[in-house]
Amino acid sequence: MQRPLKNLDLYNNQLSTLPPEIGNLQTLTELDLGYNQLSTLPPEIGNLQALTKLNLGFNQFSTLPPEIGQLQALTELNLRANQLSTLPPEIVKLQALTELDLGYNQFSTLPSEIFKLQALTKLSLGRKLSTLPPEIGQLQALTKLDLWNNQLSTLPPEIVKLQALTELDLGGNQFSTLPPEIVKLQALTNLSLGSKLSTLPPEIGKLQNLRMLYLWNNKFTEFPKVLLELNLEVKWDTWNGGICVKDNPFETPPVEIVKQGRQAIIDYFAALEENLDIIKQLECIIGKKIPELSEIKYDSVGYVQNGDQQVVGLGLYDCNLKKLPPEIGKLQALTKLDLHDNQLSTLPPEIVKLQNLQSLYLWNNKFTEFPKMLLELNLEVKWDTYAGGICVKDNPFETPPVEIVKQGRQAIIDYFAALEENLNIIKQLECIIGKKIPELSEIKYESVGYVQNGDQQVVDLCLYDCNLKKLPPKIGKLQALTKLDLHDNQLSTLPPEIGNLQALTELDLHANQLSTLPPEIGNLQALTELDLGFNQLSTLPPKIGQLQALTKLDLGYNQLSTLPPEIGQLQALTKLYLYSDRLRTL
Asked: What 3-state DSSP class applies to 326?
């Protein structure tokens, strides 16, 4: 005797139609048509009145036949990932239905028929819903509600009626704050939230039945301390229970702490609290509240007092400190001050009052200029070692350059002395010219100098390797100049007034960015040496031929493809450098 067919599995084929004869299989209890290409069902589907499970997921249905309502034994109906935007009214006849999956369809609003299916325990809805109607509260048998990947930003108050709910998925929605109704769903064991949350209300700690809380891919920069009340492990990469927080931009604690789990987070906040107390005590000692300290992150803060209750050691390292308060100068018993790994770029002048300092740690901050006042502390400056002195490794120093700072205290003193001397030279030079020269006042003065003759006229001027971008037209007033050194700057042009320097015998423009020369260059009739190497010249002015006294001409490393015929007029030339140009003919 042939046994009646109970289960028919046609999952993952390429079916585009079902034959009417499907209706003859009236003993079927389970029919799986998932992952096919079906867009319609024959009316005969209504004959399968013994069906308890029907899977139509991942097909192409845009409508369902009214005969679906005849399947009144149905307990599970999967319609996931179709093109449905409505349901037939007859769906309300499926009063035995406990599981309904409508996820990934085209519903912009929920069909009212759903709310009459009072036996439902599991309901999946999505993906275009922007609101959830109040009628959702009628489905009080629900234990699982999947609203993942919709456009929801609020929930109706009526959702609190779902007191049997144990699983709620709100991931991939538009909630910027946690809907207050959720904390009233005390039976919840699984809760998924996302993807725009940055805070959680204290009330979430009341959900003591939670076993899984999914918060991945949100906007949390601070780990919500209230979650530690749930007594769940914190996890980063796994989703098998606990509080899952992957892909949040945590700063407090940093991600590397969060990845270590619950205990590491507890320890972090405990240290944070302790450090807050330390800051308060420190402010009491100083006698004033210090805004700069009250705003920092207190990851690594501490102090040590001597027998007289004076602070002798202070650590404010790796705590996002951007400004050291001037009140630091009141801690005059300090022997050790640790400020490493912060955001400091300057120090207050009051730091020089700390004359008992033996160790000052400033490594890995944002100093571009070495604080000159530190030289008054009479401590050695160190780069790689941390055994006392002023330790300044890994700061982006420009003044002095890192290579000078690495040489220590005396090299820094010498640098600033030379800088001061060069500033004086610039001022004197401006007095001679008779006008303040903005282009000179903005440069770095590492290599500046001049020489005067007996008549106090400038005859030799050096402005090399000092970041000079523009030569001031007033240069033309220095008509006694015989030597002008401008190498290793950023000059792209020369002013026509350069032609006024008719006593000039040596002109060094090596390693600039010159692409042209002014015709007035031809006025420098006394010139014997001209260095134009390592520029961007592609042509030379014909006036170059007027430099009849020229004995040395360096044109190497330019963009010259030809030379002007006037070059042949330089009869006194004994040295001509044309290396690494682009010459094709001579």
From this structure: helix
Does one domain contain both 383 and 331? yes
Q: Let me know whether 108 and 12 are in one domain.
A: yes
Q: Report residue 14 as tokens.
A: 């390429």
List all residues 6 or more positions away from 133 whose beta carbon is below 8 Å from its beta carbon.
109, 110, 115, 156
DSSP element (H, E) containing 450: strand 448-452
Is 112 a member of any domain? yes
Nearest to 323 by CA among 299, 306, 303, 347: 347
pLDDT digits (tens, 9 = 90+) for 32-55: 999 999 999 999 999 999 999 999
Strand order in the sheet with 448-452: 448-452, 458-463, 483-485, 506-508, 529-531, 552-554, 575-577
Q: 1 with 121, same domain?
A: yes
Q: Which domain holds residue 117?
A: 1-128
Q: Single out the residue of 546, 536, 539, 538 nearest to residue 566, CA to CA.
A: 546
CB 385, CB 376: distance < 8 Å: no
Residue 292 has pLDDT above 60, yes or no: no
Judge contact between 46 and 64, C-beta under 8 A: no
C-alpha–C-alpha distance, residues 207 and 272, integer Å: 26
Q: Smallest Cα–Cα separation from 188: which of 142, 157, 235?
A: 142
Indicate the number of domains in the chain: 3
pLDDT band at 269 (very low <50, low <70, confident <90, very high): confident
Asked if residue 285 lies in contact with residue 328, where contact means CB atoms within 8 angstroms, the answer is no
As a whole number of angstroms, the distance between CA 580 and CA 582 comes to 7
